[in-house]
Specification:
Structural class: alpha/beta
Number of helices: 8
Helix content: 25-40%
Distance between the termini: 22 Å
CATH superfamily of the largest domain: Medium-chain alcohol dehydrogenases, catalytic domain
Number of domains: 2
Number of strands: 14
Strand content: 25-35%
Shape: globular
Order of helices and strands: EEEHEEEEHEHEEHEHEHHEHE
Radius of gyration: 20 Å
Length: about 290
């Protein structure tokens, strides 16, 4: 439900490549939930297809959607919530964070360490990378190829290197001649899938981390069979597991194990969300990840 009075600004994706800022009622935290005043929200590459437009999407989207990498300060809590408390800075697992306020269950809010004060923290995105590495089962001494060097690929590569692996980055248009124990595909395209499939070593593991959502894919199943590879889908759908990974990511960021300023690079006001999506699509020099602030 929503409050009877007051209003907030929220981005509304009305149709393909057309975002407008609307004044809408702010959400009200139900029992067990919290209201967060959003400081910022990351722009995920997985949201590009819905912004670009596909026949299977329905428009307009809900106000604030598809923002799912939000963080901010707890404004108010619903009945029965003991933590987090009002005034606490958190990242939240929600889907309408392209707005001034959003709500989430209390158990889907992750407190942000003091070391991250004043910094943009799209924690859900970093949590995804943590889960990818877990599903990949990367161990010290392994050689790992990472196909696709956007935000996710760079973050996964950094985590794999931290785990003691040797990293081979594979950029668009490249195809290494060697094969690898672990290949992590992070681009979400047919081209990346083809390259990744072709470089997995016999009895190696292919990890699908890219978000494939713009149509059917073909795979070289004969090659997969012949090489006896394992194939892991690294997309996590259990919210509790996602939140656990977000907590681990927060600790890594606070400890400086991941270089936040080098990975979250471009800031836009919420009113220019279209421009933020365009930057995510075209990736200008120095671009890794965009975020918007209300």
């Amino acid at each position: 439900m929503t409050t009877a009075t007051g209003a907030m600004t929220a981005a509304v994706l009305r149709t393909a490549r057309t975002v407008r800022s609307d004044s809408v009622p702010p959400p009200e935290p139900e029992p067990g939930a919290v209201l967060v005043r959003i400081e910022g929200c990351g722009v995920c590459a997985s949201s590009l297809p819905v912004w670009e437009g596909r026949a299977w999407f329905d428009y307009p989207l809900e106000p604030g959607a598809p923002g799912h990498e939000g963080w901010g300060v707890v404004e108010r809590v619903g009945a029965g919530v003991e933590a987090p408390a009002p005034g606490e800075r958190v990242a939240l697992l929600s889907y309408r964070a392209f707005a001034e306020y959003d709500v989430a269950p209390a158990d889907r809010c992750v407190p942000l360490p003091r070391e991250l004060d004043g910094l943009p923290v799209p924690l859900e995105a970093f949590g995804c990378a943590v889960n990818v590495l877990r599903r990949a089962d990367v161990r010290a001494g392994m050689t790992v190829a990472v196909v696709g060097l956007g935000f996710l690929g760079r973050t996964v590569a950094a985590l794999a290197a931290r785990a003691g692996a040797r990293i081979v980055p594979v950029r668009r248009g490249e195809r290494p001649s060697e094969r690898f124990e672990r290949v992590i595909e992070c681009a979400g395209t047919q081209e990346a899938l083809d390259v990744a499939s072709a470089i997995v070593a016999t009895r190696g593991r292919l990890v699908l981390a890219g978000f494939h959502q713009d149509g059917l894919r073909t795979v070289d199943l004969q090659s997969w069979n012949w090489c006896g590879i394992d194939v892991a889908n690294a997309h996590e759908r259990d919210a509790a597991v996602v939140v656990e990974a977000m907590r681990d990511a927060a600790a890594l960021l606070a400890a400086g194990e991941l270089e936040l300023p080098r990975l979250v690079t471009h800031r836009f006001p919420l009113a220019r969300l279209d421009d933020a999506f365009e930057a995510a699509r075209t990736r200008p020099p120095g671009f890794v990840k965009a975020w918007v602030e209300p």
